[in-house]
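User: Please write out a complete single-protein record containing the residue sequence and its fold in C-alpha cell form, without commentary.

AI:
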Amino acid sequence: MVDEETLRTGLIYLGMAMFVSLLLGLLLLGWVAWQVKKIHVPEGADFAETLRYTPFTVVLMIDLLDFALDFLGAPVAWVILDRLGLKALRGVATVEALLPFTQLIPTMTLAWIGVRLFNIDPTR
C-alpha cells in the first residue's frame, strides 16, 4: 500500500513533467511550423513514406504534446498534423493519444526511428 505522502509526491513530479513537456512541445511547434514548410510530402503518401519525409522534431513535438495533454492530445495532434500537411500521420497519432496508458510511450518517435532503422521504403 502506498502512503498519501508518496502518492502526493509522485503526482507532483508527474504534473511537473507534463508541464515541462507542454512547454517544450509548444516551443517545438513554432520550430516545426517553420521547418515543415521546407519539405514536400507527395500527395497520397502513406504513413511510412510520410515519416521518411518528416523531420524528427515533428514526431518529438507530437509525442511531447501527447504526454502533456493526455487524451486532449488527440484533437491537438489532428489539427497540427492537418495544418502541417502531414495527413497520413493524423490517424496513428490520434488513435495513440486516445488509448489509455500509452502517453508515456513515444509512439511516433519509435515509428520514425523504426522506418529509418529497418529502411522501410514503400516506393521500392
